[in-house]
Amino acid sequence: MNRLSSSIQSVVAALHPRHWRELGRRFRNRRYEVTDDGEVLIAHARIGGLFSTRAPDGQGEVLTHNLLTTEGVNYLLACGLGGGVQMGAFYIAPFSGNVVVADTWTAATFASTATELTTQYDEATRVTFVKSTPANKSTNNTANPAVFTSALDNVNIWGIGVLSTATKGATSGVLLSAAKYTTVRNLPTAGDSLAVKYTLTLTNS
Fold first, then answer.
1. Each residue of 17-42: pLDDT tens digit?
2. Are 84 and 48 in contact (CB under 8 A)?
3. CA angle 91, 94, 96 (to 5 degrees)
4. Which residue, 2, 75, 144, 149, has most beta carbons within 10 Å?
C-alpha cells in the first residue's frame, strides 16, 4: 500500500467502523446536508476541508472552505468501506473562472468548467499535495505547501481544486474538492508565487 492510500485509510479510520456502511447508504440516497462552510454532514460524520493561501497581492493569508464534490465523497466512502480503488496521489490545481463551485463537478469537467490554469504557471504539472501523517482526525500539507510560480505578469486566480491526476487540464481521475475565493487572488509579476495549504478533516459529529 502506498503512503497516500495509507494516509486516506488512517483518516477515514477516525470514524467508528460501524458508521461507514450507514454513511454510504445515506449518501447514495441523498440523505445528507452541506453546511455553509462546504462541509458534508452524513449521519454521524462531518467531512470538511479548508484552504489557506498566500500571495503578494496585499490580501495576506486567506482561509477558504472547500466544497467536497459528490465524486470526492464517493471516493472517501469507498476507501472507508475498503472496496474502492485508491488513488496513488492527489494534486492541487488553480483555476481562473469566476464561477460558482458545485458538488456535481468532476475530474472530467473541472478543467473546462473552472477554466483551469495550465500555461500561466511554471510548474510542469498540477502540484502534489504532500500530506502529513494523519493526526487529530485530519491530514494536511502545512509543512509542504503547494507553490505555483507565475509564468506571466498579472495572473488572476479565482480558486483551487484537489484532483488525483497530475497532468494539467486532465479529465481523468477524481476531483476531491474545490473552492472559490471571495476575492480574486492576483500574481502581479512573473516569478510571483501562490502558496496553498489544505487540511482535510473527518470526524464523528
1. 455 555 555 556 555 556 566 655 55
2. no
3. 155
4. 75
Assess contact for 196 and 178: CB atoms under 8 A: no
User: pLDDT tens-digit profile of 105-122?
Assistant: 999 999 999 999 999 999
Side chain identity at 65, as an amino acid letter? H
Instruction: Specify the number of domains making up the chain.
Output: 1
* 81-85, 88-92, 132-136, 165-169: least confident range: 81-85
Q: What's the domain range around 48?
A: 3-204
**pTM of the complete model:** 0.81
